[in-house]
Amino acid sequence: MGESFTEAEREALYKAIFSRRDVRGQFRPDPVPDDVLRRILLAAHHAPSVGFMQPWNFIVVTDPAVKARIHADFAQANEEAAALFEGERRSLYSRLKLEGIRDAPVNLCVTCDRERSGPVVLGRTHMPAMDLYSCVCAVQNLWLAARAEGLGVGWVSILHEEALKGALGIPDRIVPIAYLCIGSVSHFEPVPELETKGWRRRLDLDDLVFRDRWEQR
Ligand SMILES: Cc1cc2c(cc1C)N(C[C@H](O)[C@H](O)[C@H](O)COP(=O)(O)O)c1[nH]c(=O)[nH]c(=O)c1N2
Fold it and tell me: Can you tell me where the transmembrane regions are (predicted)?
């Protein structure tokens, strides 16, 4: 592989980053080809990980019965979540579509095995959450690779962790990191849906960057 990117390659990378969306409502039913699924999983598997721990597993879910069970838990968790908002905010929340569990042909649970490489992990001793963050890096790699493959991905975290573990037979010591809905889509929205629907806007980058010290600009 060449060491530097051509201009076109660089542009392609930024295109994937800026046009990636969280997809909940635009899934098409056609199956994800095995070779494409394999490529995006391979992209996830090439994520950085603390101490090269590679603490992830990937549970590919296509069984409608399993999806239905997880969707039922979503419905319950989503009601609980809606109740935490008041008035206009609650009715806006209730109108948002926040999952594509049954619509997406593939669901994927990314998990973290915190004991994968023994009790002492290079780089994790003083910051123990680093293995969890490594799995999130894998999710992001997959999300960008999926975008380049023309596949939409939606992250669903409105779930009870124990219910998810029960539905997928995940052992106690394994932590579910992400539950993702994956499939081809009718289109990608140009901006996040939470922005279009008036929930929240993108912050100004300049307000978030400090120099040398917290809040110093
Ligand atoms: C860890 C985590 C967890 C969730 C999300 C994201 C992440 C990173 N997002 C998607 C989130 O709403 C979305 O990323 C932002 O609104 C920004 O939109 P784009 O991803 O740029 O389209 C998300 N979306 C949703 O509809 N239901 C959900 O449960 C979640 N959960």
Answer: none
